Amino acid sequence: MSSTVAVTRQWQIYIPEEVREALAWTKPEKAKVEIKGKTIVVIPEESKLMRLAGKYRGVAVKKKVDLSKIRDRIDYSWL
């Protein structure tokens, strides 16, 4: 897939909708720009948040909470 885009005076380019859809970009993200010969290559970067997805799975302690005892632990003195 290739598209022709305009470069603004501030050296910005617009990523066409069909390219964003092909990359599954739903919001602005960071991208890496590389030069290969006389070609500019734009590579989407994985977001920091997505790199953390699933990292701590299984670490959380699954502890049942007795909701009837929560009210006993709340400090109502400030009300």
What is the count of DSSP helices, taking H or I runs of 4+ residues? 3
What is the percentage of strand-forming residues? 15-25%
Q: What's the alpha carbon Rg, rounded to whole Å?
A: 24 Å
3D shape: elongated
Structural class: alpha+beta
Give the SSE string. HEEHH
Low-confidence stretches: none
The overall average pLDDT, rounded, is 81
Overall strand count: 2
List keywords for this structure.
single chain; alpha+beta; SpoVT-AbrB domain-containing protein; SpoVT-AbrB_sf
Q: What can you see in these coordinates?
A:
The chain has 79 residues and is of the alpha+beta class. It has three helices and two strands. The protein has helices at residues 17-23, 48-52, 67-73, and strands at residues 31-36, 39-44. It has a two-stranded antiparallel sheet. A hairpin with a 2-residue loop joins strand 1 and strand 2 (39-44). The longest helix is centred in the N-terminal third of the chain and has 7 residues, at 17-23. The chain is elongated, with a radius of gyration of 24 Å.
